[in-house]
Design brief:
FAD/NAD(P)-binding domain, 23% strand
Length: 501
C-alpha cells in the first residue's frame, strides 16, 4: 500500500468486480474482492465433468477486433491479445425436423442471399433488416462523454440516431410478426427473451460481420482467468468462499462489509458488483432506495433463468454448425410452467480445449421462468429433483439423436444444471441468466450506480447496465471507477500510473 492509497472493498468476483478491481489498483487504491463462491467469474463460468468442459456463458465476445474500441478497453484490464479468436461464418442455423433450414450468416452478402433463397415473399423486410445491420457495422458501444474522444464519438453517432430509435423501439416478438416465413419468424421471435429490443440482433450481426464478436478459445474462463491474473499481479487481494451478509455503514457512509460468520472488512469505499436485488434489499436492508428504484425492480424484466443439459459426446462432429436451433414437431415440457417447441444446441467443435480429440462437448440451454419450482423441488424433494433432471436430459438427448444418428449411443457424460444451480452458485435474482433485458420500454436507460442517501458506495455489473454480457460488466466497472476517482479528485488511470484515459 502506498502513502496515497485508500481501500476499496468490492463485493462479487465476476467480470464487473474483477474489472473494477484492476482499474482501482491502477488508480492507486488498495483493493480487496470478496466472492461468495470458491471460484471467480459468477455466471461467466464453465465446469469440468470427466474429460469434458461445459461452458455456460460465453459464446462470443465483443472486442475481438484489434482495431475496435472494445478491444482497447479490454486491453486496459488484461492482455486480450493473448487470446485466440474464432470468427464464426454462421451465427446460428435453424432447422425443422422435416429438413427445412435457415442459416444466419455473419457475412451480410451471404446472409442476403440466404434470406432471398428462403423467402422471396419477405424480400422487402429482409432488405430493411440487412440495411440496419450494415448501418451499424461501424457503431461502437457508447460511453459517457467525459473526455474529448468520447464527445467526438457521441457526435459521430448522432447520424445513426433515427435508426437506433427505430430498432430500439420494437421488441423481437413484435418484429417477428413482420415476416411470413415461419423460420424467419422463429429466428426473430426471441423465445423466452422475446421482449428484448430488436437492436440486440441488429448489433450482434453488425459486430460479427466486422469481426468484432469472435469466440475466444477457452471460453469465459480464459477471459476471467486473465483478468484475475492481472488483478493479483497489480497487488489486489482475493477472498473466495466468503459470503457478504451486510454492507456496513457509518450513518450514511459505506464503511465495509460483514461476512457470514461475523468477520468484518473495513473500507473507505464499497463497490457492489454482486446481485442488485440482494445488494439493495438484503445487504443494505432496503435502507438506501427510493420510489424510482423500487419501481425499476418491480417493473423491469430480467432475462429468464435456465436449465442447461451438457453432454460429452464421443464423436468429432466437425461438419455440425456451432450453434443450431432445432424446431420440434412436438413440444417438450421442461417444468410445469415451461413447454418449448424449439431447443438450441451449442456444439463446441471449434474449441479443442473442451474435449479430447475425436470427442465434442455439446450444451443445450433451456430458458425457464419457473425458478421457484426448481428451488422448492430441490429443497423439499431431492429425489424428485434428480428424477426431473433426468427426464429433461432424456428429452434433450432424444432430440439430438434424431438430428445426429447414433449420438445418444456416443454420450459419455450427462450433466444438468437448473435455476436452483444458478441461484446457489451466483445468487442471481430469480436465477436470471444475464440481469435486465434491454426492451423498448427501457431503451438505453441505465440504473444509477449510486444509491440515494449513501456516500462512498457504488454499483457495477448487469443490474445497472441492461442488456447483459461481459462488455456491460467491463463498461459499468469503468464508469464506477471514473465516478469514484472524480469524487476523490484523482485522475482515472485506465492503463498504468501516469497514463490518464
Amino acid at each position: 500500500m502506498t502513502d496515497t492509497d485508500s481501500r476499496i472493498v468490492i463485493v462479487g468476483g465476476g467480470v464487473a468486480g474483477l474489472c473494477a478491481g484492476v482499474y482501482g489498483l491502477r488508480c492507486g487504491y488498495d483493493v480487496e474482492i470478496v466472492e461468495m463462491h470458491e471460484r471467480l467469474g459468477g455466471l461467466a463460468t464453465s465446469w469440468r465433468r470427466g474429460d469434458y468442459t461445459f461452458e455456460t456463458c460465453l459464446h462470443w465476445l465483443l472486442g475481438s477486433d484489434p482495431k475496435g474500441r472494445m478491444h482497447a478497453h479490454w486491453r486496459e484490464v488484461f492482455d486480450i491479445d493473448q487470446l485466440h479468436f474464432v470468427q464464426p461464418a454462421e451465427y446460428v442455423r435453424l432447422e425443422t425436423e422435416g429438413g427445412e433450414r435457415l442459416s444466419i450468416y455473419t457475412d451480410p452478402v451471404r446472409l442476403e442471399a440466404e434470406l432471398m433463397r428462403l423467402s422471396p415473399e419477405d424480400e422487402a423486410e429482409s432488405r430493411r433488416f440487412l440495411a440496419g445491420v450494415r448501418e451499424f457495422r461501424d457503431v461502437e458501444i457508447p460511453e459517457p462523454p467525459e473526455n474529448l474522444g468520447a464527445w467526438l464519438g457521441l457526435i459521430a453517432s448522432l447520424r445513426h440516431l433515427p435508426a437506433l430509435q427505430h430498432w430500439m423501439g420494437i421488441s423481437l416478438k413484435d418484429y417477428a410478426r413482420r415476416f411470413k416465413h415461419p423460420l424467419l419468424r422463429r429466428f426473430f421471435a426471441g423465445g423466452e427473451s422475446g421482449e428484448l429490443s430488436a437492436i440486440a440482433v441488429v448489433l450482434t450481426l453488425a459486430w460479427m460481420g466486422r469481426g468484432d464478436a469472435g469466440y475466444p478459445i477457452g471460453g469465459s474462463q480464459a477471459v476471467i482467468g486473465a483478468i484475475a491474473e492481472q488483478f493479483e499481479r497489480l497487488g489486489g487481494r482475493l477472498r473466495l468462499g466468503a459470503r457478504v451478509e451486510e454492507i456496513l455503514t457509518d450513518g450514511r457512509i459505506a464503511a465495509g462489509v460483514r461476512l457470514a460468520g461475523g468477520e468484518t472488512i473495513r473500507g473507505d469505499w464499497v463497490i457492489s458488483a454482486a446481485d442488485g436485488h440482494a445488494t439493495i434489499y438484503e445487504m443494505l436492508k432496503g435502507r438506501f432506495r427510493d420510489a424510482a428504484l423500487d419501481e425499476a425492480y418491480r417493473t423491469m424484466e430480467p432475462f429468464p433463468s435456465y436449465l442447461q443439459v451438457s453432454l460429452g459426446v464421443a464423436l468429432p462432429l466437425p461438419a455440425e454448425p456451432g450453434f443450431v436451433t432445432q424446431v420440434l414437431e412436438a413440444p417438450i415440457e421442461i417444468d410445469p410452467g415451461t413447454r418449448l417447441d424449439q431447443v438450441s444446441f451449442r456444439i463446441f467443435n471449434y474449441d479443442p480445449t473442451f474435449a479430447p480429440p475425436g470427442r465434442t462437448a455439446v450444451t443445450c440451454t433451456l430458458p425457464s421462468r419457473s425458478f421457484a419450482y426448481w428451488t422448492d423441488l430441490k429443497r423439499d424433494d431431492p429425489a424428485g429433483y434428480e428424477a426431473h433432471k433426468r427426464r429433461v436430459a432424456e428429452a434433450v438427448t432424444a432430440v439430438l439423436a434424431r438430428r445426429i444418428p447414433d449420438a445418444d449411443r456416443a454420450i459419455e457424460v450427462v450433466d444438468v444444471s437448473t435455476p436452483a444451480t444458478v441461484i446457489r452458485y451466483t445468487g442471481n435474482w430469480q436465477g436470471s441468466m444475464e440481469g435486465w433485458l434491454m426492451t423498448p420500454a427501457t431503451g438505453l436507460r441505465r440504473l444509477p450506480i449510486a444509491l440515494p442517501g449513501l456516500d462512498r458506495f457504488l454499483m457495477a455489473g448487469q443490474w445497472v447496465a441492461p442488456g447483459g454480457g461481459l462488455p456491460g460488466g467491463l463498461m459499468s466497472a469503468r464508469a464506477a471507477m471514473r465516478a469514484l476517482c472524480h469524487s476523490d479528485r484523482r485522475p482515472f488511470l485506465a492503463h498504468s500510473r501516469g497514463v490518464t484515459a
